[in-house]
Predict the 3D structure of the following.
Amino acid sequence: MKKIILLFTLFFLFAEKASSQAINDTLVVGYTTAPPFIVQNGENLEGINIWLWNRVAKDLKLNYRLVEMEFTEMLDSLKNGAIDISINPLTITSERHKRMDFTDSFYASNSTIAVAEISSFQKFISFIRGFFSANFIKGMMVLLLIIFLFGLVGWYFERKKNPEQFRTGRKGIWDGLWWSAVTLTTVGYGDKAPRTRWGKVAALVLMFGGLLFISGLTASIASSLTVNQLNNNPDGFNAFKEREVGTIKNSSTLGFLKSHFFKNLKEFDGVQEGLAALNNNQVEAFIYDEPILKYRIAQDSILQKISILPIKFDVQFYAFGVAKARPLLESTISQRILEITETNEWQVVLNEYGLTEL
């Protein structure tokens, strides 16, 4: 019995020592620039995630070496165990979790849409195109049909008992159309008015029905002629499904857009490249994580004509990625991240980079 207890004791001591050694090994830490989380400032690295990782590594006395990688290469290296951890703000997804572990989340974000501001000439062209939209043309056709039908009805009832205002023949039909148009648009010149019972009934139907129709038509025309309707449209996200939009290759945003049936997607290796393409009108919009887009636009004067639409979707939780073979490393780092993010110091760091918690 004593031998068994001794064996178990030795086993646990050995396991604990091995685990401790695993954590204390020199870790290979992959990263790629992602301002404001990882900012390359000359030879120095700055940003929210750099601060957080330095704090974690110092508190846990971790030995590590940083390795800069492309985003796709970093994910592949993490999945196959070539690196131990990625300190980028990786979005936790079920697909990624199959091949890597994640620490506890340290920040919640969302995706948004960046568009390039259009010139005054482009706004004018968009305004003119609004007159040729399907809704505008359909509305005008229905309006003309109503004027024509009620003009004929009014003329038919009034032609015999009111020949002074509703003449016979072609001139009388024109009189009916004129009366119908004036009545429908509520102009009310008063030069023509029905005298018969059925003529007055037709006028009542035309006035009240026309009031409702004109109100709906006005709203439809206003919608068709509004140049910036995407900015105020709560369904603006869906308006981009048929447009050519860009996002980051192998990102969670790309997967989200594909799952929501975006048909014309252009993939970029980095945010700066994608925003440059948007600025040069190579894509109609660029969709990615809101804090990263806002920081990039604010820091680059060339991108000042790009604006962020007030559209938020695809809530994301950022975390460090950890290789599947390092479960103890993941749990140890997660505990320390929770402790750090509960401090006021963490809020100060976020504020320095213009971020707040959701």
Summary: Residues 125-225 form a domain with the Helix Hairpins fold (CATH 1.10.287.70). The longest strand covers residues 107-116. The chain has a mean pLDDT of 84.
